[in-house]
């Protein structure tokens, strides 16, 4: 065990040499700033790096610094985030920026204790900002790091357990090279993303293969420990895209819960038939004749969230102009939800969840 420990003492040096030769190039690395680090690390949670690149550029073009983000409308922040999913990340960034303006003169603080005061910044993000942007000797432990270190030291932990993060963090801190914590953290991230991947890792390409306890024991693919996934519940919805003249009906989701504050079309529980949709629209929107409606079936769609699944069917319901009541476009707040008719050009500026992509791309793509 003592010999293994001495061998592993060489690990940071070997890993850093590999990193300097093989590091991935990303825009947030090329021009490292505290704010850019915060934005990129927030976007990279639950999202692949290559996907983040275009969003990162666009977001910084719109909100180049903390004061501009703090002063933006929530709707505009959500629109810039549209397609990335997990919108609570955008909300946290927005709230955190306002907090920094109020408490830290529009800048991010440099030490961990103050960073952890900022809404939405947890231990991982605080460690990443402190080490990458401010050169502090702090660890940044996420799923990638847990996977790499659980294999490197043959530690049988499950990433979803709270204790796992504490245990791995304590090990990482032992090997954190003084003055190079930021590079070391990024090196582990890159190793986990490109070589020490989930499932079966590419051990033959790993610079640490001769040091890795899991590789030497031939158990790398078994670590970290994975819990058996439970079946997630499925919910069915009928999506109704309702239009009248050049207007489209949009509802706002509640300020709490799944997809909070995002916009949507009319969403009715269950998979409803065309006749049921026709009767519902006539009743709720006070349409008197069936002939006043033109109904077109849209494609079926589905979306998997982290904890549930949506199965959707869709209809486009067009209310004919010559028969619609004059008060129709002032319609709000009934069984259709907290919504109203919007001009198409205004509706295109609103943020919608990725779950509805099959329907937004048909009606709200800029022309």
Summarize the structure.
This protein is an alpha+beta fold.
Kindly report the average pLDDT value: 90
Tally the helices: 17
Number of strands: 7
What structural class do you assign from the helix and strand content? alpha+beta
* N-to-C series of helices and strands: HHHHHHHHHHHHHHEEEEHEEEHH
* pLDDT < 50 runs, ≥5 residues: 329-336
Distance between the termini: 66 Å
* General shape: elongated
Evaluate the radius of gyration: 25 Å
Helix content: 40-55%
Q: What can be said about the biggest beta sheet?
A: 7 strands, mixed
Beta percentage is: 5-15%
Note down, in words, how this protein is organized.
By secondary structure, the protein is α+β, with helices and mostly antiparallel strands. Helices cover 43% and strands 14% of the residues. It contains 17 helices and 7 strands. A hairpin with a 2-residue loop joins strand 1 (234-244) and strand 2. The longest helix has 16 residues, at 88-103.
């Amino acid at each position: 065990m003592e010999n293994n420990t001495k061998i592993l003492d060489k690990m940071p040096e070997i890993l850093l040499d590999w990193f300097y030769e093989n590091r991935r190039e990303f825009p947030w690395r090329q021009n490292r700033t505290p704010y850019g680090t915060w934005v990129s690390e927030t976007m990279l949670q639950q999202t692949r790096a290559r996907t983040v690149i275009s969003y990162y550029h666009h977001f910084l073009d719109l909100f180049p610094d903390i004061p501009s983000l703090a002063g933006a409308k929530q709707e505009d922040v959500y629109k810039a985030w549209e397609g990335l999913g997990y919108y609570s990340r955008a909300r946290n960034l927005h709230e955190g920026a306002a907090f920094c303006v109020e408490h830290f003169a529009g800048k991010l603080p440099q030490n961990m204790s103050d960073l952890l005061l900022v809404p939405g910044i947890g231990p991982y993000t605080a460690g990443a900002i402190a080490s990458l942007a401010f050169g502090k000797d702090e660890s940044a432990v996420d799923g990638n790091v847990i996977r790499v270190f659980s294999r490197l030291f043959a530690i049988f932990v499950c990433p979803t357990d709270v204790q796992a993060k504490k245990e791995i963090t304590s090990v990482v801190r032992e090997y954190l090279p003084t003055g190079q914590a930021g590079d070391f953290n990024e090196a582990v991230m890159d190793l986990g993303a490109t070589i020490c991947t989930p499932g079966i890792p590419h051990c033959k390409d790993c610079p640490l293969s001769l040091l890795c306890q899991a590789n030497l024991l031939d158990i790398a693919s078994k670590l970290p420990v994975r819990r058996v996934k439970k079946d997630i519940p499925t919910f069915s919805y009928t999506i109704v895209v309702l239009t009248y003249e050049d207007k489209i009906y949009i509802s706002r989701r509640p300020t709490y819960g799944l997809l909070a504050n995002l916009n949507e079309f009319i969403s009715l529980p269950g998979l409803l038939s065309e006749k049921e949709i026709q009767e519902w629209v006539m009743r709720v929107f006070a349409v008197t004749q069936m002939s006043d409606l033109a109904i077109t079936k849209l494609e079926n769609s589905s979306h998997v969230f982290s904890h549930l699944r949506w199965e959707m069917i869709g209809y486009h319901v067009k209310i004919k102009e010559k028969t619609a009541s004059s008060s129709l476009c002032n319609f709000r707040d009934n069984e259709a939800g907290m919504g109203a008719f919007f001009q198409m050009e205004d509706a295109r500026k609103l943020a919608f969840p990725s779950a509805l992509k099959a329907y937004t791309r048909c009606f709200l793509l800029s022309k």
